[in-house]
Amino acid sequence: MSDDSHTRRNVLKSTAGLAALGAVAGCTESGGSDATSDSTESESSAYTVSMEPVGEVTFQSVPETWVANNGSWADMGIALGQDPPEGVWLPRRYHTQYYDEIPDVEVSTEEMTQLSQSGKVDKELFLELDADVHVIDPNFLLNRFDWSQDDVDQIENQVGPFFGNSIFSTGYTWHEDYQYYSLLEAFEKLSQVFQEPERYEEFAAIHEEFQSSVAEVVPEDESERPAVAIMWAAGNEPEEFSPYLIGEGTSFKQWRDLGVRDALAETDVQDFHETRGRIDYETLLEIDPQYLMFRGHEAKTREEFEDTIVSFMEDHDVASDLTAVTEGNVYRGGPLYQGPITNLVVTERAASQVYGVDEELFDRQRVSDAVNGNF
């Protein structure tokens, strides 16, 4: 990393250092007033944003480059009119095809750096990317990867701060010790980092109207709501599955908002996050959910999903007896990660899957206008 690349980074990171430098320059050089003036201007433009677990983070200017933990945060940045992040854990799980639903919004992951490689996250990648801010919960690095607090401190001191919360799931034990944020709460925090309050307010209004539209399709009587089983299915011919019980976290937001019943929660099946356990077709047949929602296949179109997973289950000795299979209620179950744009798309899709909704529940053009600043 060149000395030039550090110049703006230092401005981003060190108000106190700039102030001290300006004061010294003002005392020793006749031209020092310019330096003092620059320092004062930098101080006056500084702003602080607070988020658990990182606490208060001060920015001297709006970040221009960034990396994101996952598609939840990446989607928020796009909604706020930012360029895509330089990198995410796994670009293949940032499903940018959802933007096909939105006019004039297009994001490619082809040039994004994959931060998680072979189950490891190399600190050198952060040094190379040289991002102004890392929208990542550092506890995720400390608890899921071979990182130490010294590693986190080095990146913060040499590159840029961490700012994030593991909002997609509350299933981790290390996440119990600090505040969890809802999708809109986290989105508002990031809007403060990028200084985009108007875009946030527009999206908050869009989501409020969307929630009203969703509520209208949910039966008031809970007994009339479908029983749904959400699982991770690996490969195109799965014989067992990782069960995901509907809980808190943004990855389940569409199912909570649609008020579906959790078919697995009504049994003794335990959540994958807690036990890393799996269930097979025989167990599924005992439960016999009305709807089967399989994660891990979001990159497929509906047709591709039917030609692989669904076709395999229809020909399977046990799976073919499942009610969801015989009634044609086997679907893609939504992504692990979703932000304010993708949540609209996947929730509307889920409403179509379980309630047969065939009309649009949100205004695509209004979302486009919010992203592009035309409001």
What does this structure look like?
By secondary structure, the protein is an alpha/beta fold. Among the domains are: 1-45, no CATH class; 220-362, Nitrogenase molybdenum iron protein domain (Rossmann fold, 3-Layer(aba) Sandwich), CATH 3.40.50.1980. Helix content is 43%, strand content 13%. The chain contains 16 helices and 14 strands. It has helices spanning 3-13, 15-28, 32-44, 71-79, 123-129, 138-144, 149-158, 183-193, 197-217, 253-257, 272-275, 281-287, 302-314, 323-326, 340-355, 364-371; strands at 47-51, 55-59, 66-68, 87-88, 113-114, 116-117, 120-121, 133-135, 227-232, 240-244, 261-262, 279-280, 291-295, 330-332. Strands 9, 10, 11, 12, 13 and 14 form a six-stranded mixed β-sheet that branches. It has a two-stranded antiparallel ribbon with strand order 1-2. Strands 3-8 form a two-stranded parallel sheet. It is globular. Mean pLDDT is 88; it is low at 1-37.
Structure summary:
This protein has 375 residues and is α/β, with parallel strands linked by helices.
Structural topology:
Layout: H1 3-13, H2 15-28, H3 32-44, E1 47-51, E2 55-59, E3 66-68, H4 71-79, E4 87-88, E5 113-114, E6 116-117, E7 120-121, H5 123-129, E8 133-135, H6 138-144, H7 149-158, H8 183-193, H9 197-217, E9 227-232, E10 240-244, H10 253-257, E11 261-262, H11 272-275, E12 279-280, H12 281-287, E13 291-295, H13 302-314, H14 323-326, E14 330-332, H15 340-355, H16 364-371
Parallel strand pairs: 3-8, 4-5, 9-11, 9-13, 13-14
Antiparallel strand pairs: 1-2, 6-7, 9-10, 10-12
